Amino acid sequence: MGFVDYVTQNLGSRKKKKRKPNQKVEIKVKMDCDGCERKVKNAVSSIKGVKSVEVDRKQSKVTAVGYAEPNKVLKKVQSTGKRAEFWPYVPYNLVAYPYVAQAYDKKAPAGYVKNAAQAFPLAQAPDERLTVMFSDENPNACSVM
Known about the structure:
This protein is α+β, with helices and mostly antiparallel strands. It contains 4 helices and 6 strands. It is about 25% helix and about 20% strand.
């Protein structure tokens, strides 16, 4: 490495800021009318780093895509006077036991359940061991079946 290479690499270059990753922030906000929807959309779109804002009034959901911090987006929505929280729901088909006590929510939009700790059956349970013993997915299963 020569002197010219050293100067161009170390002295000639400026520090580059690391860019935050592009992320999707989903927030649950109760909106009643077009005015509420417009107020929330304008507040979120004014945040530096937000590229697009989608508002779904039927599901009470606001989705912001961009480089903004999730907490910053939440605070901005709350500053409009609306009660807001991060989107607490996941799609129904991604959950193993959707009707566990904490997951099933009557207020959830269609096709969604609350994101709660799931009650998985214990692998040591005798009935679970018997069903796994004759399973096609178990490589050590009984070959008689």
